[in-house]
Each structure stands twice: as structure tokens, then as C-alpha cells.
């Protein structure tokens, strides 16, 4: 198990999330979070399905509260994608 500060985790998140070793993320000397890497293939289908449904429902509620429309989101995404590919 490896210890990282929040700052280290933020700066090296991509590399940290690829590790097979559990991580303890510390903030001011206290545990802020724990990351246990799990191969996607080992997660049961029902769990993945429930997680997907929970997340999509949460996103749907937040978007509705902000008055966002699906067309606006798709347009924003397309603009972002085009701008990113020009780099």
C-alpha cells in the first residue's frame, strides 16, 4: 500500500490510477481517500449496471436543475472535440 498526498495524487493521477497497488491519499495528515485498483473484468455485471443507472440518474437531475438541454450539451461537446483536434 502506498501513501500519497492530495497534491501528489492530483499531479500524478494518471500514473497513480494505473498502479496495481492500493493507494491511501492523505490530506493534512489524515486519510482523504483510499483507492483499490480493480480490473474492470472482475466487476460483476449487475454492479456495473447499478452504478451506471445511479450515475446517469444523478447527472440527469443535475442537468434538469440547471435547465440544460441535451442538444446544448451535444453542441458543446462537438465544439470541444473540434477545438481539441485542432491542437
Question: How far apart, in Å, are the first and last alpha carbons?
Answer: 38 Å
Helix content: 55-70%
The major sheet is characterized as: 3 strands, mixed
Over all CA atoms, what is the radius of gyration? Answer: 18 Å
- Low confidence ranges: none
What overall geometry do the principal axes of the alpha carbons give?
A: extended
Query: How large is the count of helical segments?
Result: 4
Considering the chains and any ligands shown, give keywords for the structure.
alpha+beta, 4 helices, 17% strand, extended, 87 residues, 2 domains, 3-stranded mixed β-sheet, 3 strands
Describe this structure in words.
- The structure is a single chain.
- The chain starts with a strand and ends with a helix.
- The radius of gyration is 18 Å and the shape is extended.
- The protein folds into two domains: 2-37, no CATH class; 41-85.
- The model has no long low-confidence stretch (mean pLDDT 88).
- The protein has a three-stranded mixed β-sheet.
- It has 87 residues and is of the alpha+beta class.
- The protein has helices at 6-11, 13-18, 45-66, 70-85; strands at 2-5, 23-27, 30-35.
- A hairpin with a 2-residue loop joins strand 2 (23-27) and strand 3 (30-35).
Amino acid at each position: 500500500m502506498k501513501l500519497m498526498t492530495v497534491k501528489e495524487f492530483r499531479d500524478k493521477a494518471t500514473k497513480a490510477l494505473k498502479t496495481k497497488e492500493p493507494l491511501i491519499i492523505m490530506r493534512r495528515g489524515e486519510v482523504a481517500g483510499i483507492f483499490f485498483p480493480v480490473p474492470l473484468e472482475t466487476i460483476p455485471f449487475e454492479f456495473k449496471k447499478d452504478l451506471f443507472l445511479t450515475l446517469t440518474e444523478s447527472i440527469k437531475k443535475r442537468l434538469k436543475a440547471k435547465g440544460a438541454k441535451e442538444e446544448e450539451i451535444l453542441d458543446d461537446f462537438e465544439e470541444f472535440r473540434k477545438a481539441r483536434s485542432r491542437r
